[in-house]
Amino acid sequence: MRCLFVRDLRLALRRRSDTLAAVVFFVIVASLFPLGVGPEPALLRTMAPGVVWVAALLASMLSLPRLFTDDHQDGTLEQLLLAAHPLAMLVAAKIAAQWIVSGLLLTLISPLIALQFDLPRDAVGVLFVSLLIGTPVLSLVGAIGAALTVGVRGSGVLLSLLVLPLVVPVLIFGTGAVDAVSAGLSVRGHLSLLGALLAASLGLAPWATAAALRIAAD
Amino acid sequence: MTAALELDNLECTRGERPLFRALSAVVPGGTLLRVHGANGAGKTSLLRMLCGLLTPSAGEVRWRGHAVVGMREDFSRELLYLGHMPALKNDLTPVENLVAACTLGGTQPSSAGASAALASAGLRGYDHTPSRHLSQGQRKRVSLARLVLDTAIPLWVLDEPFNALDSGATAWLVSLLAAHLGHSGIVVLTSHQPVDFPSEVVQMGLSL
Q: Are B180 and B156 in contact (CB under 8 A)?
């Protein structure tokens, strides 16, 4: 498991341009909104959580198809299916590596993006935490979609259609948490729900993804 | 129970076409099973069925008396499958690829061990070349180097292992396979080229 995690990280590091494409896309999309909508601070502050979260979602949809397609094309996916370790654990290792080079990077850059929207300090902090908890959920649920669409033509679009409706709760609770702190209300409820979604997807997604991969290989 | 692979009444249907029906065989330890057939006859499908990747439309494959389909990792630990494609990551070096492949398969080779295996496969000095710069034959040799390290795994299922190999590499592979069979391992392979094995090797043929 650790071997696979390290291998995938090493691969991501050696193909930096592919790996960073999603992060660059996130930065560009989130930065275009203030330019397009105009400089009015109040409007920007209201838009900020929604824009940042939607940009994070779209950036994830960009990086998810590559979770299994490269392995499928060079034949290493078969070897994963025949490995001497439980497939769900191997899948979890792959998802963890993918999250580190996509979701985690997005989360780390988000305070800089939030600056462009003139978000107050505590709102930036909550945005960071909500992304930290929510982006792994995107990777986990997205992995199920990626496994179901591996090898299918036009898989990027199909993946988005499958996964985006499922991750809408993450979007709602993530933005809700930032809106709550801006309005002076407690964020605990929203973040707890995000945490619950993370726990549920950690438990179910690797197993569901493994089952989907076995079907895809059949 | 002695290592034995059993094929019981296997049937394979791809799309609407039945590729083969009622295929049965018992392969005891120390036997080489050669699968013959024209292109498209279903050789790769049969090999994938033996590995448990493909579910047969009828019949079952048994390893040591148990159906392969339910065994998952218990079976995978005793199986080494080399498919059509060399299953190498282009951005990793041969040593990294080999160590990763063996570790996933259950053995834990050191870098030095992997280096030595690559050298015996005729790839001395290529340890740190990114795999994208290797030729087809060299890539095949990297994937076959796993056979040097994983001799303890009893069942070897190889899909066209002699593809893209020159005569020196072919002789090397034959000696590896003969040694494995001598230790009561089982080898299942497909091959379009006629390959001669030493006379002491027990061979079985299966035609699709």
A: yes
A6–chain B nearest CA distance, Å:
10
Under an 8 A CB cutoff, do B52 and A80 touch? no
The tens digit of pLDDT for each residue in B116-128 reads 999 999 888 888 8
Q: How many Å apart are CA B71 and CA B50, to the nearest integer?
A: 12
For each of the domains in chain B, give its residue range(s) and CATH number, in order of start. Answer: 1-78+154-208 (3.40.50.300), 88-153 (no CATH)
Q: Side chain identity at B177, as an amino acid letter?
A: L
Candidate from A11, A87, A218 with C-beta closest to B92: A11
Between CA B46 and CA B54 the distance in angstroms is 8
Structure tokens, B32: 């080489």
pTM of the model: 0.92
Distance CA A159, CA A144 (A): 9
DSSP label at B185?
Answer: -
Instruction: Answer positive or negative: Cα dihedral of B124, B130, B134, B140.
Output: positive
ipTM > 0.85 (yes/no): yes
Cα separation of A195 and A137, whole Å? 9
DSSP A42: H
Q: Do A10 and B72 touch (CB under 8 A)?
A: no
- The total number of structural domains in chain A stands at 1
